[in-house]
Amino acid sequence: MELHQQYPVRLRINGQDREFNVESWVTLLDLLRERAGMTGTKKGCDQGQCGACTVLVDGKRINSCLTLAVMQEGKEITTVEGLANGEELHPLQQAFIECDAFQCGYCTPGQLCSAVGLINEGQATSRDDVRELMSGNICRCGAYPQIADAVVQIMDMRNNDSADKPAFTTGAVLA
Amino acid sequence: MNPFTFTQSKDLDGVLAALSGSQARPIAGGTNLLDLMKEGVMAPPQLVDINGLDLDQVEQGADGGLLLGALARNADTAYTPLVRERFPLLSSAILAGASPQLRNMASNGGNLMQRTRCVYFYDIGTACNKREPGTGCPAKDGVNRQHAILGTSDACIATHPSDMCVALRALDATVHVQSSSGKRAIPFADFHRLPEDKPEIDNTLQPGELITHITVPEADRFREHSAYIKVRDRLSYAFALVSVAAALDLDADGTIRAARIALGGVAHKPWRVEAAEQQLVDQQAGEAAFAQVADAILQGARGYGHNDFKLTLARNAIVQALSTAARGTDFASGQKGDQQ
Q1: Residue spans of alpha helices (H) in B51-207
Q2: Which residues of chain A are within 8 Å of residue B94 when distances are taken between CB atoms?
Q3: Do B49 and A133 touch (CB under 8 A)?
Q4: Fewest CB within a 10 Å sphere: which of A54, B45, B128, B301?
Q5: Which residue range(s) make up the domain with B315?
Q6: By residue range, what is the domain housing residue A142?
Q7: Residues of B with CB below 8 A from A121's CB?
Q8: A121 at the B interface (CB within 8 A)?
Q9: Are residues A23 and A61 in the same domain?
Q10: pLDDT score for A98
Q11: Using alpha carbons only, what angle is made at residue A155 by residues A49 and B164, rounded to the nearest 5 degrees?
Q12: In the prediction, which pLDDT does A173 show?
């Protein structure tokens, strides 16, 4: 019937052109995991509340659970599988290992893609900024200080602007 | 998600024709609509993807104000230097909302159209007058920590969840809409509505109408003294319990020439009491005057049990927002708007 119509979608995923036929209601997340066979991107809440499904679309980080695959026609998608260069890890992946920035690892693909997006955006200038601008990614193991360490380490490498890293604080909370 | 047909159009007339006389809904960022469809709260039979329309402007308007296209993303809007430098209240309000990923997706038009996060509205296993008119409001005697204290009705005590809209209300924005039968400009005060006996209707947008852009009048006199304070259950990425957009026009000795104060998290729409703002004119900026105006703004407020604390919290947040604004705008505060 008409409602189960398939819609053609062309995407460039991690540098490869791919074509799919999907129903209207298939999210980008479900396309990646179920149709493209790329299960690096995780489904956590499926409601835009946890950030585990974060991917980059044309270099911008988004929640892939809250967009339809058919809305991304022609877009360039980068998932965690696309960060490394062959066997050579992306600097952020290496920094996550060095900083012990994960325990169970379920949120890590989203954390990594989010951190790449954060660096692309160029808005963070301090550790507090990094913490605020990584707040869309929940880590139930509580590796937040180490995740911030890893991102700050990479930003320092890229900008070479500061060697002194302020100690971890919980920040000011109103009320 | 319910099955639905999907169309895309790069032509405004085509979109407006598709939206007229049908149950089709436009989709832009999709961050709220798709969530509601997954939960079964909304089930539109047709979605029209409007992302191809040429409505992503963030630029100076003809009158020196701001012109925001309905499809400009929240993040792009907040980070545009024109917005950051000339409308810091709007920039910091936007950046206090949601997460970076969601702000990259969410459109300005969609921000206005987002629906309440009332847990009963979201739970299709419960009654809700907004979701199913006439079924009742379990929030009034239920879990209502997040709920409204102003402008409520017997039918509904939901809040509007936006941060951006609180700043737009304070800055006297205008919402520009279009349908296949013409264009209309709606003052921001009249866009969202109170629940009264029709809580299923969030705003005054009519069937077939699409938000095309939002304009904000020039506000340079408030530029140096504005603040957006958002109080929530965790430091970031949470809806407001209470938020306050405050802007002051001060002369050199600290006398108030004009004040703007709008509240979020307390009502079915951004809450503003212009008559109360008038009380501040010609007064010296300071806590005594701010506390008086807070009481005037909150006149008639009532709690429903779990949210009783909002009466005190809102009063204190108003005083704090005005005090912060009086000290001077923190132009870098957008990214961490609640840190003092």
Answers
A1: 74-79, 81-86, 88-95, 100-105, 108-113, 119-122, 164-170, 188-191
A2: none
A3: no
A4: B45
A5: 225-328
A6: 91-159
A7: 75, 79, 100
A8: yes
A9: yes
A10: 97
A11: 40
A12: 40
Contact A24 B6 (CB under 8 A): yes
Confidence check on the interface: ipTM exceeds 0.90, yes or no = yes
Cβ partners under 8 Å of residue B136, min gap 6: B127, B128, B129
Per-residue pLDDT of chain A (175 residues; tens, 9 = 90+): 466 799 999 999 999 999 999 999 999 999 999 999 999 999 999 999 999 999 999 999 999 999 999 999 999 999 999 999 999 999 999 999 999 999 999 999 999 999 999 999 999 999 999 999 999 999 999 999 999 999 999 997 555 444 444 444 443 444 3
Strands A54-57 and A60-63: antiparallel
* Structural domain includes residue B241: yes
pTM across the whole model: 0.95
Q: Write out chain A residues lying below 8 Å of B31, CB-based.
A: 48, 63, 66
Q: What is the pLDDT of residue B290?
A: 98
CA dist B220 to B74, B122, B216, B224, B288, Å? 21, 40, 11, 8, 26
CA B207 to chain A, closest CA, distance in angstroms equals 23
B68 vs B66: CA distance, rounded Å: 6
Say yes or no: A42 and A108 in one domain: no
The model's confidence at residue B335, banded by pLDDT at 50, 70 and 90, is very low
B-interface mutation test, from A24, A29, A70, most B Cβ less than 10 A away: A24
- For residues B83 and B331, the answer to whether their CB atoms sit within 8 Å is no
- The domain spanning residue A97 has which CATH number? 1.10.150.120
Q: Which chain A residue has its CA at the smallest distance from B234's CA?
A: A173
Give me the total of CB pairs closer than 8 Å, taking one residue from chain A and one from chain B.
119
Cβ–Cβ gap A171/B336 under 8 Å? yes
B101, B114, B117: which to substitute to probe chain A, counting the most A Cβ within 10 Å?
A: B101
The neighbouring-strand residues paired with B249 are: B258
Pairwise CB contact (< 8 Å): B3 & A25: yes
- The number of C-alpha atoms within 13 Å of A146 and in the hemisphere containing its C-beta is 17
Could you say which DSSP state residue A161 is in?
Answer: -
Contact B100 A61 (CB under 8 A): yes
Q: Which residue of A27, A131, A174 is in closest CB contact with B231?
A: A174
Q: Please list every residue in chain B whose beta carbon sits closer than 8 Å to the beta carbon of residue A58.
A: none
Number of domains in chain B: 2
Q: What is the pLDDT of residue A166?
A: 44
What does the pLDDT read at residue A45? 98
Domain boundary among A48, A82, A116: A82
Helix, strand and coil content of chain B, in percent to the nearest 5, comes to 30, 20, 50
User: Span B240-256, mean pLDDT?
Assistant: 97
Domain count, chain A: 2
